[in-house]
Structures are given as structure tokens and as C-alpha cells.
């Protein structure tokens, strides 16, 4: 049994200003992987493809690795970049033929300059190569905007059940098992699908808290019904302004299409009737700081979701940083400010030097102004680490050249690359112990909870501006289908 595998992934924030280039795919560790390089880089990692590799050894099938890459979330993918990567992907698949099936590791919210549904396009092109009968099974992010084309072209779709995403291995393992079962004729998956006319703010998609925790309890109960193979409940990525944006349900059963559709409709209705519980209240930054200063107990986590690089924001927003400096907050850290220019200034000054740097606010005018700050350089680093928490365990991360710049009691992690600091190693690798801090400002919406929530004395989702701002009614949507909640009540 020979199964091809690979994927081109991106979570596209269409409100972000900058195009996603080939360099963005190459820059994010581990870069653009080809052929055997996919196996070498992802074996043993807590990724879906790592699970595919492990399953191939356990279940006894041969993997034919094609191309794998995942750029940091950002703006529209340049059309020429998608064209080149997808053409190479298809060419490698054609060279690998014949194959019995294809396992794809995708995201589900990639938008190019000309294509709203890039995953649907890629899966359809894979289908043209392998023919109508070979199974195509894809893993998807919980924030996938699942489209009719994706459902039609794929045999099965496996979305994550958790946010923070700590179940990559479980979903990848299930997808591989269904692939083998389908090829060997033990099951014939059929699909039920329902879009939910709702845009869910990311913090309310967190599966550690209600209402999403309760929704997934219903999902897991439904998965235990006789004949049900798998259920994907996708919260969608609301910052992709496309027609098919939003939440959805996909149900796979063993040959019973009516059952699949009835469960999809049932679960969609369970989300809809609780729509008001997905409304979100943000906390003013000053209130979160005042709480920490008053209690004196930390760490208090301030989650700056509006400038979350994991959702396409520039990660150089300064509103939270400016408030911390103004309050002269002690034992405080900001992770991270992505500012290559400031990093170079810190490197030029050297460790221990006092220097004045212009920090942040350089990508656009929507995330706070540039700050002229005088402080000292405490540490310089290559910015490399591996995740040690429960999300994407063992995956390498590259912050690029990195500096710790200290202004009063505030430590600023300045990086050359945009990364979401959801793992405590992002701080520890530059000498900052999170458990010793009073306040930690993180450029993250929810993923930080996997590693930081167990140590936090309090968590605040702070009210800051940005292209990933979860106050969705304030965003200017142009392509989304209407009516849709909460834009239309």
C-alpha cells in the first residue's frame, strides 16, 4: 500500500496589509520541505504529518512524501507563489503515481490574490491526478473555513477537536487509520455537511471553556453513535473575508448518508441556539495592569489577540507595551515585538549597553505608534528553540536574531521573525522564567493557554487595536455571505 503525503498551509488574514511571499514560506522553520526531507524533518514531531509517518510504520504502508510547507499566518498569499508551490506539489504527485491514496496536512483558511478557497483548489487538483476512486483524506485546523468544494473533492476531512491545538497527533493518526480501512475496503465513508451562518471570535472558540467545550462534548457523544466514523466541528477563521467564511460541521459515517446529514444538522443547530454565548467582552489594558499591581501575585497573563501573529497580525503592536511602561510595571515581560530594525540596533549596541531604540508600530498604523525607548540590552540570541509544551511538541521554532531589551521593569523580547509565543520556551530560551514574572504580555489569542494557563494567577483578554481584533462587528467585511451572525444580529 502506497500513500502520498504533503501539504501547503496558510491561515490568511485578508485584513492584513502585506502579501505572503515565497520567502515567508521558506523563513518559517522548518521551511519548504521536499521529498525525503518531509520525513526527516517531521518524524517524531507533534504534527499531523508526524502522526502520518508514525502510522505508516505501525500500519505497514509506504509513504511517498511530496512537498510540505506552512507559512506564518499573514495577508493574502501572492498568486505567483501559490501557483508555483501548487504546481510543484502536483508535479511531484504525478511523479509518485501510482498511489493508493493521499494524506494531506492542510490548514483550511488559505486565500490567494485570485482564489478564495485555495485548499478546495488544491484538493480538486489532487483529485484530477489520482482519479475518482482513490481516497483523499485531509487534516484541517479547527479554524478552517470548510467549503463545499473541499467536501466534494475530499473523501474525508479531519479537523482538530482542541483549541489550543494539542491533538494534532490524534487527528493525524485517525486520518491514517481511516485511509487504510478505506483502501482495504472495510469502510466506505460518506459525508454530511452543514455551514453555520456564524463568525466566531477566536477567544470564544477555545475548547477549554464554554460554550465551545460544551459543543465538543456533544460532538464526542455523537461520534460514539453506531456507524459514525468521524466528526469535524470547525469554528472557522473569521478574518478571511470570503464567501464561505465561518463555522461548519462535517460528519463521516460508514455508508449512511442520511445519518451523516442529520447529525450535521443537529450539531449545527446546537451551535446556533447558543450564539449569544459567543459574544466577547475585552478588558482595558490599564485594568489588567492595575489588577496585577494591586494583588502583587503573578504571573498575570495579558493576551493581546488583536496583534496575534498566529492570526496574521504584524506582531509589532505597541499599545500593551506602552501601557506597561507608563505604569512602570515591575517584573513584566512582553513576548514578542517583531521588529528587525530594533533588533539590529540592539545587536549593534551589544550586551550590557544602554541604547535608544524605536520599537514597533512600523508595519501599519493600526496596532499602535512606534515608541522611542531608552533601555539596556540584556541578551542577544539566535532565537532558536523547540516547543516543550503540549502543543506541537518537539517542533523547531525560529524567532530569528533576537534581543531582550529592558526598559525600567519591562523586558521586551525583540525578534526578527513573527512567531506566536504559545510555548514557555519562547521566554525561557532568552533567560526569562515565566513563573517569576508579575505580568506577561503575550501576542496570542488562545494557544498560549496550553502552556501558560496552568501557571497563571489570572488571564485577561485585553482590548487593543489590530487586524485580528475579535470585536468582529467593527471589521469591514465585503465578501462574506449575508446574513451572518454577529454582523446581522
Describe the structure.
This protein has 489 residues and is an alpha/beta fold. It has two domains: 2-277, no CATH class; 283-469, no CATH class. 29% of the residues lie in helices and 23% in strands. The chain contains 14 helices and 20 strands. The strands form four sheets. The chain has a nine-stranded mixed β-sheet. Strands 2-3-1-4-5-6 form a six-stranded mixed β-sheet, with helices on both faces. Strands 7-9-8 form a three-stranded antiparallel β-sheet. The protein is globular. The model has no long low-confidence stretch (mean pLDDT 97).
Shape: globular
H/I helix tally: 14
State the distance separating the first and last CA atoms. Answer: 51 Å
Going across the biggest sheet, name each strand in turn. Answer: 10-20-11-19-12-18-17-14-13
Q: List segments where confidence is low: pLDDT < 50 over at least 5 consecutive residues.
A: none
Number of domains: 2
User: Which band does the percent of strand residues land in?
Assistant: 15-25%
Averaged pLDDT: 97
Main beta sheet: strand number and arrangement? 9 strands, mixed
Helix content: 25-40%
Number of strands: 20
Class per helix and strand makeup: alpha/beta
How large, in whole angstroms, is the Cα Rg? Answer: 22 Å
